[in-house]
Amino acid sequence: MPEDAPAVAALRRIAFLLERAREPTYRVQAFRRAAATVARMSQQELDSRVAAATLEQLAGIGKVTALAITEAQSGQTPVYLRRLEATEGAPVDQAGAELRARLRGDCHTHSDWSDGGSPIREMAEAAIALGHEYVVLTDHSPRLSVANGLSPERLRQQLDVVAQLNAELAPFRILTGIEVDINEDGSLDQEPELLQRLDVVVASVHSKLRMPRDEMTRRMVTALANPFTDVLGHCTGRLVVGRGRPESEFDLEIVFEACRRFEVAVEVNSRPERLDPPKRLLRLAVEAGCRVAIDTDAHAPGQLDWQILGCERAAACGVPADSVINTQSAAELVEWAASRAARRGS
């Protein structure tokens, strides 16, 4: 069954919109499992099961998804999809919308190679549908074992997979990258030789977030001084939903000055549970002259559309569009990262 069959496309679109609306994961996965099941079927088998109303006999397909498949294969837009599309989105702040229109890609995304929920190709195809020219694949590094972080061997394998996908998806580009853990001593959790090969490196703190202020400051500045660090990911580590998690404490002026001096972009993380950094810190980063990356930290295709949340926050804090690294083309972004690494003595 072709990947672009009506039923497969409809089911994935439904899953995308459910993810975007932050619906429960089990609901999203129901449509993704159904899409995977249909994609493995021949056209003849699908037509036969639709005609005989036996789709629900297949693992991964229930009453709701069977109806959506039947409607899609008959040339209709499934009722479930029509309802989602009729209610999706809301008017956005004009300045944020204008900034979003300037973005050409996303510098922080995950796939099922680490703790994301979808294959690399699906993430790329969703980015293409959103109008992106590129996406940076930044799965986790080895230390974050709970997120299935990539060992050096697995990362090398992923680079080969990305090369093959780029040959198939051109002119769209999947840029190679990683969200590398900042170790407690400020070192980066991956082999330097591999970090040097990557297009973009996002460095983030994921452990011991409550370190004393001075120790956390040294830890972050050490990582920022590393020539392979391109973006400082979700700098405070805060969570603003549920029980939440407080911000890490560090010397703001020292860290943002280090970002400016070492030409590391401060990430505006668009995830609704993060919205990191807080606006007061983002304003300080702007005043310090830092560059910015407006990213989704997406772990599923629908989450790639969260970028507008970061754009609205960036616009509200006076982030100049020209300071946002992902307003650059893929070639310009790669050149920027490579040239600044060279200037810093890698």
Summed up:
Helix content is 46%, strand content 10%. With 346 residues, the protein is of the alpha/beta class.
What are the key terms here?
46% helix, 346 residues, TIM Barrel, alpha/beta
Helix and strand topology:
Blueprint: H1 6-20, H2 25-39, H3 43-52, H4 63-73, H5 79-87, H6 94-102, E1 105-109, H7 120-129, E2 134-137, H8 152-169, E3 173-181, H9 192-197, E4 200-204, H10 213-225, E5 231-232, H11 252-261, E6 265-269, H12 279-287, E7 292-295, H13 307-316, H14 330-343
Parallel strand pairs: 1-2, 2-3, 3-4, 4-5, 5-6, 6-7
Helix pairs in contact: 1-2, 1-4, 1-5, 6-13, 10-11
Ends distance = 47 Å
- Given as residue ranges, the uncertain stretches (5+ residues, pLDDT < 50) are none
CATH superfamily (homologous) name of the largest domain: Metal-dependent hydrolases
Number of helices: 14
Number of strands: 7
- Give the class from helix and strand content and strand pairing: alpha/beta
Number of domains: 2
How would a textbook summarize the main sheet?
A: 7 strands, parallel
The proportion of residues forming helix, as a percent range, comes to: 40-55%
Order of helix and strand elements from N to C terminus: HHHHHHEHEHEHEHEHEHEHH
Residue share in β-strands: 5-15%
Radius of gyration: 21 Å
Instruction: Please state the oligomeric state of the protein chains shown.
Output: single chain
CATH topology annotation of the largest domain: TIM Barrel
